[in-house]
Amino acid sequence: NAGVMQNPRHLVRRRGQEARLRCSPVKGHSHVYWYRQLPEEGLKFMVYLQKENIIDESGMPKERFSAEFPKEGPSILRIQQVVRGDSAAYFCASSPQGQTPYTFGSGTRLTVV
Amino acid sequence: GENVEQHPSTLSVQEGDSAVIKCTYSDSASNYFPWYKQELGKGPQLIIDIRSNVGEKKDQRIAVTLNKTAKHFSLHITETQPEDSAVYFCAASPHSGGGADGLTFGKGTHLIIQP
Questions:
Q1: Chain B residues whose beta carbon lies within 8 Å of the beta carbon of residue A98
Q2: Is residue A25 helix, strand or coil?
């Protein structure tokens, strides 16, 4: 059981570029959550997805951010036209059928220069 | 929405002593309270969790207590060891069965075990 796999581990983007973060859940898990962690802060909920459905995106910024979890393949968190304030660690968690506990990945550390 | 406060932000204890980290929450509907350990450069790892129908739960050197009336819960680590050094996060969710809203996290406690 490979656990939650996130890639890339580190991502550097210039201001205005797009960032794509990928998350492959634990095998058999159909629910994915994305969280953002700023330095010295706790994790902030962004979005909750099932396969092909966004269940709750109340934590997502209204612009430039989007997420998907297609029928096949990993979940993608997409940030368009990145700004310096987007620099953070982005963590994905998965669970079976939306049940607790959640399993977290090792995160993608995004740096915007 | 839910608000979780965590104290202290930094805790330094001598190896072998006990460490206690405390959290309070605001939403009385919350009924699932996990604790995560995060080491440098890694993702959070669940170390123990408790649901609202239980007041205390123990797993070897780690225990969690929950006071629903006062809306606070605490992590207790006994006989601390150097490998316990990490950042610890508490969290709360109104959905012990999972589902929408996800988890609301505290800001974390940096636990330092002094040899």
A1: 95, 97-99
A2: coil
B13 interfacial to chain A (CB closer than 8 Å)? no
| Contact between A56 and B96 using a beta-carbon 8 Å cutoff | no
- Contact present, A108 and A10 (Cβ < 8 Å): yes
Q: pLDDT tens digits for A27-69?
A: 988 899 999 998 878 899 999 999 999 988 989 999 999 999 9
Percentage of chain A modeled with pLDDT above 70: 97
Q: What is the pLDDT of residue B61?
A: 97
B78 and chain A in contact, CB less than 8 A: no
Phi-psi region of B91 (alpha: psi -120 to 50; beta: other; left: phi over 0): beta
Query: Nearest CA to CA, how far is B79 from chain A (Å)?
Result: 26
